[in-house]
Amino acid sequence: ELVQPSMQNSIAELSRALFAMDLPALGYEFSVPFYVIQGKDDYFTPTDVAIAYFNKVKAPVKGITLIDNSGHFVAMTHMPQFVEAIEGYLRPPRR
After folding, report:
1. Burial of 30 by CB count in 10 Å (0-12 exposed, 13-18 middle, 19+ buried)?
2. What is the C-alpha to C-alpha distance for residues 4 and 21, in angstroms, rounded to an integer?
3. Separation CA 34–CA 94 (nearest Å)
């Protein structure tokens, strides 16, 4: 078996928790930086839904990066681009 029964249970519980999550219930105003790194071809969290949520968020600093030719697991399938996006957000602005 590729996936052990305990792993299947964990995946099932995580999936239930994620699908039950109501992001709008958290509100749209954050006092911390807010960043989204999204696979442009994500079918689990469609890009247009992510952009719509991002546009409603108010934060002191925010940014969105859409990575071409990638889906929901962009952090694993396009790691160099994902890391580059994170590093770009972490670098202090040039003066």
Report:
1. middle
2. 26
3. 20
CA dihedral 77, 79, 80, 86 (to 10 degrees): 140
C-alpha 42/C-alpha 50 separation (Å) is 10
pTM of full prediction above 0.85: no
- Give SS3 for 94: coil
pLDDT digits (tens, 9 = 90+) for 41-78: 998 888 998 999 999 999 999 999 999 999 989 999 99
Burial code (b: 16+ CB inside 10 Å, e: under 16) for 82-94 equals beebeeeeeeeee
Q: Report CA torsion sign: 28, 29, 30, 34.
A: positive
Cβ 32 vs Cβ 59: under 8 Å? yes
Nearest in space to 68 (alpha carbons), one of 24, 32, 29, 38: 38
Q: Is residue 53 a contact partner of residue 23, using CB atoms and an 8 Å limit?
A: yes
